[in-house]
Write a structure and sequence with these properties.
Elements: H1 4-47, H2 66-75, E1 86-95, E2 104-114, E3 118-125, E4 132-139, E5 142-149, E6 153-159, H3 162-179, E7 191-196, E8 199-206, E9 209-217, E10 223-232, E11 241-255, E12 258-268, E13 276-288
Antiparallel strand pairs: 1-2, 1-13, 2-3, 3-4, 4-5, 5-6, 7-8, 8-9, 9-10, 10-11, 11-12, 12-13
Length: 300
């Protein structure tokens, strides 16, 4: 026994080392696949963007309900080229917990938004070595959520099913109302109606998918809140259902002729006592293109 015990220990340690190496290799392969898919989807979205030669004229929205007309006349300067996609760089905070215990983390993100086709949102949460890196995305009927601790160990993976895709499409249209107003012009098939004197509802159909977005504006047409009835499982039961989702908008700046908010907070159950703004960002750059960056990047 005195002779064999060290051999058994060495053999056990060798097996453990091999298992750890195989596990690490598997995680690195998964990370590589994620990054490759992020870049491929980003490129696919960028490739479908057509650079518009048309420019905005108030006559394009003259027949819309009053709050919708004010929304467009505030967000798009006359003579602006009607580009319907945007590349965003942002920083802020993202809460990984709940309303009672938010567990807020520093956030940096890089996004390409191409409504109604989809988006890629590449994000880094936390600072230093302990960080979570990953992405949300949608392209047509395909969508995903995938984040990794230390940019390696999976901590959140979802998607690949109709429920997730329907939820992601809701996000695409909510963010279109915030950052790409030209994508919601009636010329693209958007149907507009007035909810009240300061709220307009845009309904977008893309194939079989339909999503309505409510946009509340002030007397000058400045959007102050965007909300949707979203198909979501962000609830205590973790079951998909229709529930309120949206955000509050402020600090407008002009980029390429578009006046968009540079401060946005958003979360689930907006307009109710359960509202929790888990996402608060400031926009550093907004570029209406093309051309766009070759792929998503949030640095190290």
């Amino acid at each position: 026994m005195r002779v064999r015990a060290p051999r058994v220990i060495k053999a056990t340690l060798l097996v453990l080392a091999m298992l750890l190496a195989a596990g690490a290799a598997g995680l690195m392969l998964l990370r590589h696949r994620d990054l490759r898919d992020d870049a491929r989807t980003w490129a696919q979205l960028a490739s479908i963007v057509q650079d518009s030669a048309a420019v905005f004229d108030a006559n394009m929205v003259a027949g819309l309900p009053e709050p919708a007309r004010r929304y467009f006349e505030f967000t798009i300067r006359p003579g602006t080229r009607l580009r319907t996609a945007v590349e965003l760089r942002m920083n802020g905070v993202f809460a990984l917990g709940d309303k009672a215990n938010p567990n807020e983390q520093a956030l940096r993100a890089h996004q390409l938004l191409v409504p109604p086709a989809g988006f890629v949102w590449k994000a880094r949460m936390g600072d230093g070595a302990v960080r979570i890196v990953g992405s949300d995305g949608q392209l047509g009927a395909r969508s995903w959520t995938r984040f990794r601790l230390f940019d390696l160990v999976p901590v959140a993976r979802a998607g690949g099913d109709p429920d997730h895709a329907r939820s992601a499409f809701g996000r695409t249209l909510a963010e279109a109302a915030i950052w790409t107003p030209a994508a919601l012009l009636p010329a693209h098939g958007t149907r507009w109606e007035a909810v009240d004197e300061n709220t307009a509802r845009a309904t977008v159909r893309d194939g079989e998918r339909v999503q309505a977005v409510d946009i509340r504006v002030d007397e000058d047409g400045r959007p102050t809140r965007v909300s949707i009835a979203r198909w979501s499982n962000a609830n205590p039961e973790k079951r998909y259902r229709i529930q309120p989702f949206g955000g509050e908008l402020s600090d407008y700046r002009e980029f390429d002729g578009f006046r968009v908010p540079t401060r946005v907070e958003g979360g689930n159950f907006i307009g109710t006592n359960d509202y929790f703004a888990f996402y608060r960002v400031e926009i550093e750059q907004a570029r209406f293109g093309p051309p766009f960056s070759p792929g998503p990047d949030v640095g190290r």
